[in-house]
Amino acid sequence: AQDELANLKRDLARMNMEHTQLLKAKAADEILAKIETDLDFLMLTAPFAEDIMSYQYDDLKYMLAAFETGLSGVLNANDMGLGKTFEAATLIHCLNHFFYKKHDRKPQILWLTAPQLIEQTVGEIHKWTPDADVMPIEGSWPKAQREMAARMAIKRNAVVIANYEQMSTNEVIRSNEWDVIIADEVSKLKG
Question: In this model, does residue 191 exceed pLDDT 60?
Fold first, then answer.
């Protein structure tokens, strides 16, 4: 009788675990379906809608699902030339809508990249998301100018584009609580 009771307890525990997994899978499917509905609605007016590839749409949907479920990070490790910058720029457009819906404000976004790519990054963002408010902050500027630009950008929720070194040299950037940080050219990160 004790063996039978132990077997029943094991079976019940297994069934509870399977039930929990099914509930989690159902919740994930519901979140993805809602995101897809919202994303499809956004695509009706998105400036990049005609240019997005199906895999990029799936990547965007995954990144938005990560945001909706509170995941603290996503790595886009697509091969070179597959549009990681495009996906990040379109994510900004979509997050502005999703974040506003959830928090009643636009997100504070920091985009870190190599110094020589700051200008190019601003151009790419404007190409795919022309309505994005972007503030490039050049590391060659005087410290006071860099910090003033960062304060202005944060105040108006502009996307801040800066190099990695500014995380240690720009007190305003370092001390702000960013909602989203996009780390471009992550090979530049050390330590």
Answer: no
